[in-house]
Automatic annotation (TrEMBL):
PANTHER family for the chain: ENOLASE SUPERFAMILY, MANDELATE RACEMASE (PTHR13794), MITOCHONDRIAL ENOLASE SUPERFAMILY MEMBER 1 (PTHR13794:SF58)
Reactions the enzyme catalyzes: L-rhamnonate = 2-dehydro-3-deoxy-L-rhamnonate + H2O
NCBIfam families reported in the protein's UniProt record: PRK15440.1 (NF011968)
Name of the molecule in the record: L-rhamnonate dehydratase
Keywords: Lyase, Magnesium, Metal-binding
Recorded name of the encoding gene: rhmD
Residues the record marks as active site: H317
Site-annotated residues for Increases basicity of active site His: D290
CDD domains found in the cross-reference section: MR_like_2
Length: 391
């Protein structure tokens, strides 16, 4: 491949089902009375959409090389993200070599420090980085995992996140992760309901199937400690994201106080190697960076190396092909998450459908990552998208 340069960067927004998987219509398990930091306010307990979890929408980043080849990626950043790409970050890409991944990432990060560091800005940087990997893979006619050193296993094995771990077991997944439904503000009754739900599901799936709980930043240290001890009696595999992301001290305390045999995991809403360094120093057992949010693959490589040095597992937050290509290349990522985006979590459907075409899904809880160039997916031309800004 001759040296290719970047001709143009474009940013689009999409509403409805896409990378922003909370942007749903109608009833869906992912929005059914799930514990959140906002659950301290009773009026926001029933629905996460009620406090605006779906407001961003999907960002699509396209990067076109000088020969007309286009790479793309999707993430959660919406119109805010499109503005950042078009009005700020494009200057660090256009005219540069496609292979300048490290320099481009570093300049995007350093140039946005005064208003970025976390959150939507890192979502945007992640999207651009992933689009560059997709473009490089297409130009070299190689899957992204080949650019990362190649696979260390023949296939991926998955656990399923959703409301029906019993159904996940029937579908061949190695475990099931349920959302925690009741936050501390719902008192003793909510605590009991959370425990009863776990006990009921344990009765349905038997003793050997993994069961996990996703707390989505909703608990405090005292509640999480009491609950993890009670949940251990029902074979809880891990307690996930119990505290707000910035409470590193709380995570250290929770890890110290947790019963033997129950893992403490978190990191879905953490970003960059610096954030994960702080998190890993708390002693948590599993970190769960989202490659669409933490800084892209360029940064996830560094985060994973840090975790390996700390003896922690890296199990990325469910992000479809964007995490599959990474997980298959790392020995400290022994399994992957599959987010059950079926309305009742009873069927396996592509996570980013209908936005992506060719998105692979596990069969019997397993998946061989396709050898298609780039990330191996295409944008569905029938899904409307808008380019709200240009540069």
């Amino acid at each position: 491949m001759s040296q290719r340069t970047i001709r143009e960067v474009r940013a689009y927004t999409v509403r409805g089902k896409g990378a922003d998987y909370h942007d749903q219509e109608g009833a869906h398990w992912i929005d059914d009375h799930i514990a959140t930091p906002m659950a301290v306010y009773p009026e926001y307990r029933q629905s996460r959409r009620s406090f605006g979890l779906d407001v961003l929408g999907t960002l699509v980043v396209e990067v076109e090389a000088d020969d007309g080849t286009v790479g793309f990626a999707v993430t959660t950043a919406g119109e805010i993200g499109a503005w950042i790409v078009e009005k700020h970050l494009a200057r660090f890409l256009e005219g540069r070599a496609v292979t300048d991944l490290e320099r481009i990432w570093d300049q995007m990060y350093r140039s946005t420090l005064f208003y970025g560091r976390r959150g939507v800005v890192l979502n945007v940087i992640s999207g651009v980085d992933l689009a560059l990997y997709d473009l490089l893979g297409r130009l070299r006619q190689e899957p992204v995992y080949a650019l990362l050193g190649g696979p260390v296993r023949d296939e991926l094995q998955f656990y399923a996140t959703g409301a029906r771990p019993d159904r996940a077991k029937e579908l061949g997944f190695l475990g099931g992760k349920m959302p925690l439904h009741h936050a501390p503000g719902e008192g003793v009754e909510g605590f009991r309901k959370n425990l009863d739900a776990l006990a009921d599901m344990r009765g349905r799936v038997g003793e050997d199937f993994w069961l996990m709980l996703d707390c989505w930043m909703s608990l405090d240290v005292d509640y999480a400690t009491r609950f993890v001890h009670a949940a251990a009696e029902h074979g809880l595999k891990w307690l996930e994201e119990a505290l707000i992301p910035d409470d590193y001290w709380g995570y250290a305390q929770l890890k110290r106080q947790a019963p033997p045999g129950v893992l403490i995991s978190t990191g879905e809403h953490e970003a960059t190697r610096w954030g994960f360094r702080q998190l890993l120093e708390t002693g948590v057992d599993i970190i769960q960076p989202d490659v669409n949010w933490c800084g892209g693959i360029t940064e996830l490589i560094k985060i994973s190396a840090l975790a390996d040095a700390h003896g922690a597992l890296v199990v990325p937050h469910g992000s479809s092909v964007y995490s599959y290509h990474f997980v298959v290349t790392r020995t400290n990522s022994p399994f992957a998450e599959f987010l059950m985006m079926h309305e009742t979590a009873e069927e396996v459907v592509p996570m980013f459908s209908p936005l992506l075409l060719g998105e692979p899904v596990p069969v019997d809880g397993r998946l061989r990552v396709p050898e298609t160039p780039g990330f191996g997916v295409e944008l569905n031309p029938e899904v409307p998208r808008e380019r709200p800004y240009t540069h």
